[in-house]
């Protein structure tokens, strides 16, 4: 990149390392911001969940949360064109589906989602991002706060078309003995950039994140996690798994930050990447920061081609090579997809995966109905 | 026959949960005792409590060894006094060879610096008896060992450390038929009128070699029935259910 | 006969064992490295860094013009370069107070008896002449800025092996030095590489001709005695095709209340099918800023083995780098870092895979206690040409108490698909289960902990020659003393 070229930095690593590796953040060209009309996503909900839409700012003070990029974060805070508040009261249970669609009419979405869950509540939010438009830009802030012994799950499916830049800043503050579960499928967009910070400041709070991706063409998928743990007996589990095709790139920056006093914390992060084309880039920066001795922290990352022995085994059962490859890629990402918890969404993701792997040629609206759990084999 | 171990009204809690609820047991020198009971009854808890695992908290009762109250003694003092436990799941210790480990332990337990060559000769002889390859002496303790190899290494430690009381916690689990025979022969060869054996097992096979003097049935944190070896057949025939009524 | 042989084996092992145990009772061991000599010197520069000082150093050393030009160019780069924006805080290091060049009151000698008494006494106390007699093929000893002693076995000289101080090398092998000097670590690499280029002095030069196997190790020992001084030695090792050598470097210094700086540079050129083992036992005093740069380039089917034990210094930044340039080149890194009170040790390993079927294996262990900070910072880059490359990284960190800190900051960049990469890291303390297991065999809690720590670093001890393994063991016992709960 030429020196005088203007770049925007996303997903800064909380503890930077060697500059020459160019892994401390992601550099992208700035994208023109358009003025857009206010927008309301398609919505439905069940149970006790209360949903309201608003304009302006309802997200409370975020402390030192920097987001994926400070400018984008401030824009999402102050100039949002779509705000949504989801709440469940103490002891209540509910689910919400929100579908944000980029279109020629609304090419850019600058949004806020505020999720508040009371004590002993149980809430699932299904977050769908789709659609495509030239100059598409999604700049989205999600804020989660839970009371004690609450459970909040966000199942996210991102299926944008190839012109969209998708940036999500997600901050969560888990209450005592609460659990925050993220299940994410990042399939679409030209660049999918997520920056998730979860504070485990309270005792026995838990954070689980499982994300899958499948990159193709010149896509960029950039995951950034930062989990400071200060409560006693917290649990952190971050799993990222996927595959890269063509000239796509994946960045994984995971930071589990064991702060002093967070005794008996357990944290693990893993990053698995299957490399399917010679020109893909896989970048992994899994940090463990530790100021407390009474913890168990682990991380593992691996990258490589499809296991030849597995391929041979499957082909000996009659699958052709493409079919066998798909099965292996799927076996890696299915555990995440299956956790989305909504059959319709799971099928959409599977269909998109197979399209990318060029296995299902029936592009169109059939994937909503597709329940085929195994590939059609020639 | 003199008293070796006496457990009096022992209550044990693990992470706040009471597992043993008033257990009494006396073992004299030269005897072999077996503890039987269903999973979760508290068998391993008893062993860990006798060995002095700090995770197992004595909430009431006392443990005496050779007449001395060891209820509050740290684990290594108990080891020096002559108590040995063969762990159900022995820990791997990276970077320390089996030989160095046992020689160090022997020096500490016996209070006598072990000279390298005589110790090695004895170790190798014991390994022969256990049909262990000598290369295991050079390997890191339990590191990458199979279940069976770990169990044999526990017995090897017993032979070398020569404890007065040996507690075998499911030493036969994960062993094939031949290994069970080798291990139980080694233990019965080691056993004499000067030491005692306490066994936890789910299988009667090992007991054919060890010939227990007493059998205890442990249910819900208490010994509900004690008897001679004939009790084993009763258990094999009727299971533990028939003893449950006696637990209350 | 057999009995006698057995007796000998036993005697040897018992002696070693006794040596290992002796240290537990040897309370004065901590002072072994920390003795000061009167500060005598024949010449030293003013503190700080100016063009005049750089010219002065070059002139005193009667260097060729190209070297002076190189120094001045490096100084210019130093003056214009930013300090790194990552890593440890080095704001307390004030370059204006560092004396860059201290010539000891001695000429380079090839016989210990010709070395001035106070300097010889220093190396005697460090056990260098003794080690030379028993286990080394060549020895170099640097005191402050210059090498005061150098020797090599005649047999190696006959085979064409060169082992000499860097000034002599510049004089005798100017072409080779000019072709290689700071080519692997250019002054533009980072600020302290530029500093090194400007004020370097001392160091060793090793040349091993094709096919020669130097079976006994060579050792260089670096001692910094002058308070407030910097040591900037340059080490260059060229191992030609099929040759093999083991080089050991040791470093220490007495503790002063002012900051000392070590910004050495190590450049290793490993030819096709050649093997170099580079071992370091570093025990700088705890007022030292150790900002050292080490780099190796490895040819076809060549191997670089790094073995490092980092115990000393106030602040360290040290990431030996291996550039695997030839097909099938291999790198093995085995390192242990032990940070105690007041220490901030940022260490690790860098590997760049530039050719097909290259492989690397990084095994790093760190221990932190009494508020010490250990950072593992590493990088693995697999470039598009490195098809069939294999890389494996394992980092284990042990925290001995709750005041300390241990961070793992690895970065992995993969740019081709035909590779096999595995990376694992773990942080934690000694498990209660392991302590219980060992104590159930009669060991006290302290013994159990010490044994587990020793076991933890065993992969490094095993990779070192016996004498150095014992020294490292001693350093660990020293660090553990009184720190165990």
Automatic annotation (TrEMBL), chain A:
Domain of life of the source: Bacteria
One Pfam entry name: SUFBD_core
Record InterPro entries: Fe-S_cluster_assembly_SufBD (IPR055346), SUF_FeS_clus_asmbl_SufBD_core (IPR000825), SUF_FeS_clus_asmbl_SufBD_sf (IPR037284)
SUF system FeS cluster assembly SufBD core domain segment(s): 108-330
PANTHER family named in the record: PROTEIN ABCI7, CHLOROPLASTIC
Entry protein name: SufD family Fe-S cluster assembly protein
Species assigned in the record: Megasphaera hexanoica
Automatic annotation (TrEMBL), chain B:
The ABC transporter domain, residue ranges: 5-245
A Pfam family matched in the record: ABC_tran
Swiss-Prot/TrEMBL keywords: ATP-binding, Nucleotide-binding
KW tRNA-binding (keyword) present: no
Domain of life of the source: Bacteria
KW ATP-binding (keyword) present: yes
CDD domains for this protein: ABC_FeS_Assembly
SMART domains xref list: AAA
Annotated GO MF terms: ATP binding; ATP hydrolysis activity
Designated name of the protein: Fe-S cluster assembly ATPase SufC
Organism for this UniProt entry: Megasphaera hexanoica
Record gene name: sufC
């Amino acid at each position: 990149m030429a020196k005088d070229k203007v770049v925007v930095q996303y997903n800064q690593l909380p503890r930077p390392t060697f500059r020459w590796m160019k892994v401390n953040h992601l550099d992208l060209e700035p994208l023109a911001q358009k003025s857009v009309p206010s927008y309301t996503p398609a919505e439905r909900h069940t149970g006790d969940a209360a949903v309201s839409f608003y304009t302006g700012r309802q997200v409370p003070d975020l402390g030192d949360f920097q987001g994926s990029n400070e400018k984008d974060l401030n824009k999402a805070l102050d100039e949002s064109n779509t705000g949504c508040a989801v709440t469940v009261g103490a002891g209540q249970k509910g689910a919400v589906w929100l579908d944000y669609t980029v279109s020629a009419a609304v090419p850019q979405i600058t949004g806020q989602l505020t999720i508040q869950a009371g004590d002993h509540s149980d809430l699932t939010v299904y977050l769908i991002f789709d659609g495509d438009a030239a100059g598409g830009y999604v700049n989205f802030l999600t804020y989660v706060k839970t009371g004690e012994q609450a459970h909040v799950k966000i199942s996210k499916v991102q299926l944008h078309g190839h012109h969209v830049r998708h940036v999500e800043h997600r901050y969560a503050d888990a209450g005592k003995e609460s659990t925050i579960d993220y299940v994410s499928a990042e399939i679409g967009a030209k660049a999918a950039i997520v920056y998730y910070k979860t504070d485990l400041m309270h005792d026995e709070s838990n954070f689980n994140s499982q994300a899958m991706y499948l990159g193709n063409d010149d896509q960029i998928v950039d995951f950034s996690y930062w989990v400071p743990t200060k409560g006693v007996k917290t649990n952190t589990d971050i799993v990222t798994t996927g595959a890269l095709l063509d000239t796509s790139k994946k960045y994984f920056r995971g930071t589990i930050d064991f702060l002093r006093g967070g005794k008996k914390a357990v944290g693990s992060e893993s990053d698995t990447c299957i490399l399917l084309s010679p020109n893909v880039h896989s970048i992994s920066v899994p940090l463990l920061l530790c100021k407390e001795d009474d913890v168990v922290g682990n991380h593992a990352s691996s990258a490589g081609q499809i296991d030849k022995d597995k391929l041979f085994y499957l082909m000996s059962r009659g699958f052709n090579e493409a079919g066998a490859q798909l099965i292996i890629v799927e076996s890696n990402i299915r555990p995440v997809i299956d956790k989305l918890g909504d059959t319709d969404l799971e099928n959409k993701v599977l269909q998109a995966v197979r399209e990318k792997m060029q296995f299902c040629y029936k592009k169109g609206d059939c994937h909503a109905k597709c329940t085929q759990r195994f590939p059609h084999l020639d | 026959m003199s008293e070796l171990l006496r457990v009096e009204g022992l209550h044990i809690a693990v992470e706040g949960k009471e597992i043993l609820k008033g257990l009494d047991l006396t073992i004299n020198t030269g005897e072999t005792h077996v503890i039987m009971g269903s999973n979760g009854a508290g068998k391993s808890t008893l062993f860990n409590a006798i060995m002095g695992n700090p995770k197992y908290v004595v909430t009431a009762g006392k443990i005496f060894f050779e007449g001395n109250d060891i209820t509050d003694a740290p684990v290594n003092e108990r080891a020096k006094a002559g108590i040995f436990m063969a762990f159900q799941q022995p820990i791997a210790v990276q970077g320390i060879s089996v030989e160095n480990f046992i020689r160090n332990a022997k020096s500490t337990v016996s209070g006598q610096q072990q000279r390298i060559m005589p110790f090695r000769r004895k170790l190798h002889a014991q390994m022969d008896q256990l049909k262990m390859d000598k290369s295991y002496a050079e390997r890191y303790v339990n590191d990458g060992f199979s279940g069976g190899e770990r169990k044999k290494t526990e017995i090897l430690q017993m032979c070398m450390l020569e404890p007065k009381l040996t507690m075998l916690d499911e030493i036969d689990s994960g062993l094939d038929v031949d290994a069970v025979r080798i291990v139980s022969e080694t233990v019965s060869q080691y056993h004499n009128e000067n030491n005692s054996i306490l066994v936890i097992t789910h299988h009667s096979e090992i007991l054919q070699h060890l010939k227990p003097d007493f059998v205890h049935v442990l249910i819900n944190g208490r010994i509900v029935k004690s008897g001679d070896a004939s009790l084993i057949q009763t258990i094999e025939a009727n299971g533990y259910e028939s003893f449950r009524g006696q637990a209350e | 006969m057999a009995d006698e042989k057995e007796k000998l084996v036993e005697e040897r092992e018992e002696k070693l064992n006794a040596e290992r145990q002796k240290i537990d009772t040897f309370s004065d061991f901590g002072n072994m490295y920390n003795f000061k000599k009167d500060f005598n010197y024949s010449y030293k520069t003013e503190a700080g860094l100016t063009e005049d000082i750089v010219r002065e150093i070059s002139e005193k050393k009667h260097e060729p013009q190209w070297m002076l030009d190189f120094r001045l160019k490096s100084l210019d780069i130093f003056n214009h370069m930013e300090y790194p924006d990552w890593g440890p805080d080095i704001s307390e290091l004030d370059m204006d107070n560092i004396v860059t060049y201290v010539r000891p009151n001695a000429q380079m000698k090839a016989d210990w008896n010709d070395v001035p008494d106070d300097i010889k006494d220093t190396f005697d106390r460090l056990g260098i002449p003794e080690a030379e007699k028993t286990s080394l093929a060549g020895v170099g000893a640097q005191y402050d800025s210059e090498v005061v002693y150098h020797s090599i076995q005649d047999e190696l000289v006959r085979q064409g092996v060169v082992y000499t101080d860097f000034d002599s090398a510049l004089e005798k092998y100017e072409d080779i030095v000019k072709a290689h000097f700071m080519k692997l670590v250019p002054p533009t690499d980072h600020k302290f590489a530029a500093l090194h280029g400007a004020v370097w002095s001392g160091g060793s030069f090793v040349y091993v001709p094709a096919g020669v196997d130097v079976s006994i190790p060579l050792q260089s020992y670096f001692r910094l005695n002058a308070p407030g001084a910097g040591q900037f030695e340059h080490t260059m090792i060229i191992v030609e095709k099929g040759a093999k050598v083991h080089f050991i470097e040791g470093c220490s210094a007495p503790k002063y209340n002012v900051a000392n700086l070590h910004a050495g540079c190590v450049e290793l050129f490993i030819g096709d099918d050649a093997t170099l083992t580079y071992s370091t036992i570093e025990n700088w005093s705890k007022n030292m800023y150790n900002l050292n740069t080490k780099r190796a380039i490895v040819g076809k089917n060549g191997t670089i083995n790094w073995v490092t034990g980092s115990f000393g210094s106030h602040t360290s930044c040290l990431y030996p780098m291996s550039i695997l340039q030839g097909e099938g080149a291999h790198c093995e890194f085995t390192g242990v870092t032990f940070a105690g009170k007041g220490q901030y040790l940022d260490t690790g390993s860098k590997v760049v895979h530039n050719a097909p079927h290259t492989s690397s294996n990084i095994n790093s262990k760190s221990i932190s206690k009494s508020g010490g900070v250990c950072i593992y910072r590493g990088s693995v880059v697999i470039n598009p040409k490195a098809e069939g490359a294999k890389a494996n990284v394992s980092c284990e960190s042990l925290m001995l108490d709750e005041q300390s800190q241990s961070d793992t900051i690895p970065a992995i960049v993969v740019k081709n698909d035909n590779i096999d990469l595995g990376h694992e890291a773990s942080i934690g303390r000694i498990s209660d289960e392991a302590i219980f297991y060992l104590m159930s065999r009669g060991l006290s809690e302290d013994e159990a902990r010490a044994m587990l720590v020793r076991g933890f670093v065993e992969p490094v001890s095993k990779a070192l020659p016996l004498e150095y393994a014992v020294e490292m063991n001693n350093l660990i016992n020293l660090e553990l003393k009184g720190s165990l709960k």
